[in-house]
Known about the structure:
A: mainly alpha, metal-binding (chain B), transport (chain B), iron (chain B), EC 1.7.2.5 (chain B)
Amino acid sequence: MPASGPAQAHGPRLAGDLAIWFFILAELLAFGVFFAAYAFARAKNIELFAAEQAALNRNAGALNTVLLLTASYFVVRAVQAAEAEASRQCANWLGGAILTGFGFVVVKLTEYAAAFEHNISLSSSTFHMFYLSLTFFHFMHVILGLVILIAMWNGARQGRYRPGDMNGLETGAAYWHMVDLVWLILFPLVYVIH
Amino acid sequence: MQYKSQAVAMPYFIAAIGLFVGQIIFGLILGLQYVVGDFLFPEIPFNVARMVHTNLLIVWLLFGFMGAAYYLIPEETETELFSPKLALAMFWIFLVAGALTIVGYLLVPYSTLASMTGNDILATMGREFLEQPLLTKIGIVIVALAFLFNITMTVLKGRKTVISIVLLLGLWGLAIFFLFSFYNPVNLVRDKFYWWWVVHLWVEGVWELIMAAMLAFVLIKVTGVDREVIEKWLYVIITLALVTGIIGTGHHYFWIGTPEYWQWWGSIFSALEPIPFFAMTVFAFNMVNRRRREHPNKAAVLWALGTGVMAFLGAGVWGFLHTLAPVNYFTHGSQITAAHGHMAFYGAYVMVVLTTISYAMPILRGRAANSEKAQVLEMWAFWLMTIAMVFITLFLTAAGILQVWLQRVSDTPMSFMATQDQLMLFYWMREWAGVMFFVGLLVYLASFFVKGEAKAVAARG
Lengths: 194, 461
């Protein structure tokens, strides 16, 4: 890949804006505290957690994992395309990421619909509280991530990102990868590990 | 000063400082009533003094915020204020309404005040911090709307900066959440639930935006650091403040009858509330270290740095101390809360207003900075008040730990009043720290009247 911008001559360059990395660290800390609270609550209530976890739709969770990973891959390709001065492809890859991201939203919504049909609520049990809170908190991040992806898609179509001027694209990409990363911990933790 | 209309900030700042003095005098009365129970009884009972102490605090901070907005908005938007006359009219309305309310608290029994002011038409009185009579509350809304109209119109016709937009967002939020003070459901759980929408979403939500904007403005002026850098920090700080602060409201919903999940939500999100305050501290020190100029107003720089540190300690650390539900189960409503309340309000909001006054007042009086002598005195006041507040906080924390132990943890728990008797030593020490604070405040007042060689006439600002 061609070196992008003069900054690279002076050693490794931070991809994206410094501010987004502060923000990502704060987000990871927030999810981290939430995960720790989950572990703490689960340790006191292993049977309940195991039983209710088994009732979750693991296939939907797995499908969503695939969708998010695919979206992240598309975002990586979009960044690479922009670095190769191919704005058109960059926009197309971002379009793909947006579609797969929306796929996640649809799967999640059907999962929520099924849960509400079974009278699962924030107050129905501690496990359900964590399941709904954690996944919904993450869900809101996916929504925000999609808004950012759409803004970037728009920017890419106008040819805004090019070598040496990648800050906006990389910043948004870093945020999206964070959303993906959190799900990669959330999914096994809440749906699988027992 | 760059814009003539900035001058309307001056009466707001003077009123703020005047009411601040009143607040501290009532603080001293209250502190003494803790140890000498019948002091000034029946003329000024404890509940009335407390109401005056807390209401004066809120009102003078509002004066400070409004003054700060009138000062910084013209400079940020690079245009004169939409209507300086409206700003001045609102000043007098707010001052007179505020003074009448305090006089009402002091002269007539609270229930008489309630029946005199139409509380039977719409009952809004009797709730902590929102004790104001209906008429005063309506007055506050009118003043706030006129103020917001004035500021918003100014921003609309001028340059739009991140600082002015964040400030505007905070001020609009302040006005909108105040409307919940008119909603007073019969159900006590609902009552408390929405009461916090005013109290918590003010101080741990929208006020943080106002504070960050004010701090950022002063830091740009005294350090000369690029606006771009400061704006980026501002974005990060306000996002963190809102993400943690809004759901963090849950730390008030642990024991009021709301569903149990609030214990988790409140604990988790409010545990993260120190982060934006920590970011503000790092921000202030970082900007001062990267300064591109030596501003002659050293006192303002000291106040700005002090705000960062004390807000983090008072709001962040002392808030975290008792924010987790399992801890709060024991500490709820004890002197630990009072310790946190004192240092958080002083560190975050009192100090940010004093920072802005420290920077703006000399300029409003026609000089870039006060004389060396006046600044030295102001810095003495800074240290006296700040150290006194640290002591007040530590003594109240000690009292709180002892209180929680004797009353709630011990195998043979004592009654509330019997416990209070055991805390007298700490209450006395707190009162003496309060006297030290008052001395600091007097030194602060004196610093405005010290003459001496003024630093360079403010060349257009």
